[in-house]
Write a structure and sequence with these properties.
With 242 residues, the chain is α/β, with parallel strands linked by helices. The chain contains eleven helices and eight strands. It has an eight-stranded mixed beta sheet, sandwiched between helices.
Length: 242
């Protein structure tokens, strides 16, 4: 068995080294089973040292010139050589326990893929932790994986077209829907893991005001998600603030 960890990265020199270190430590869960693994970083048109830092850490680096997180994840997946893909965001810190849970589901042979609940870094305001808890609940009920952690059989991922290029935000929801439909036809499961949440950064709370965040959420709500197809409407991901 071989697992590919794919990390999309746009100007992530500040946080990527910690993520790569965490991924390397967490991958001990794969090595303990005798599995091989690799790390693929997609440099999504960065202007900083993202690519150099990734190479220095031993990752395979692929370049994607169009700033779009789904496109970056797909570019990484195209060069990945594993039978299973684990997508982790460049501002997130997976633990060995999470990867062990993923490996357990893979080895059991009853899953096509899934995701993980998330927890925000220490010091995050209480209101943000409240909304994160709400997302985790909905994620488990609806079977929607957070984009910061998606694990999936590589063949199934490619069969449904990957993340695709239609959306600049929320692309993981539409991927989850397609994967769940495929899982049903194959009598397999698509599960959101919850025992060991993925720790992720709350940097957007520091970089954007509540007004900016609320404006984005309301825009998505009142357009029924159609605004997510326009990069100019998804400034929280693409305006370059880091």
């Amino acid at each position: 068995m071989r697992v590919s960890v794919v990390i999309p990265a746009f100007n992530e020199e500040k946080l990527l080294p910690a993520t790569l270190a965490a991924v390397g430590a967490a991958a001990e869960a794969f090595r303990a089973r005798g599995w091989s693994w690799e790390c693929v970083v997609c440099d999504n048109n960065s202007t900083d040292r993202t690519a150099d830092l990734a190479r220095a850490a031993g990752a395979t680096v692929v370049f994607e010139p169009v700033n779009q997180i789904g496109r970056a994840r797909d570019a990484g997946a195209r060069v990945a050589t594993g039978e299973w893909l684990v997508f982790i965001d460049a501002d997130s810190l997976p633990g060995r326990e999470l990867f062990a849970d993923i490996a357990e589901r893979i080895a059991a042979g009853r899953h096509l893929g899934g995701g993980s609940t998330v927890e925000l870094e220490p010091g995050t305001p209480r209101y943000a932790r409240f909304f994160c808890g709400g997302w985790n609940l909905w994620s488990r009920l609806a079977g929607w994986a957070a984009g910061s952690c998606v694990w999936v059989e590589a063949a199934a991922f490619r069969a449904v077209g990957g993340f695709g290029t239609d959306y600049y935000a929320g692309e993981e929801v539409f991927l989850s829907r397609r994967l769940k439909a495929l899982a049903r036809t194959r009598r397999l499961r698509f599960t959101i893991l919850a025992r060991h949440p993925l720790r992720t950064s709350s940097r957007k709370l520091k970089l954007y005001t509540l007004r900016e965040t609320a404006r984005f959420l309301l825009r998505m709500l009142f357009t029924a998600g159609r605004a997510a197809k326009r990069p100019e409407s998804c400034e929280l991901w693409y305006d370059g603030r880091r």
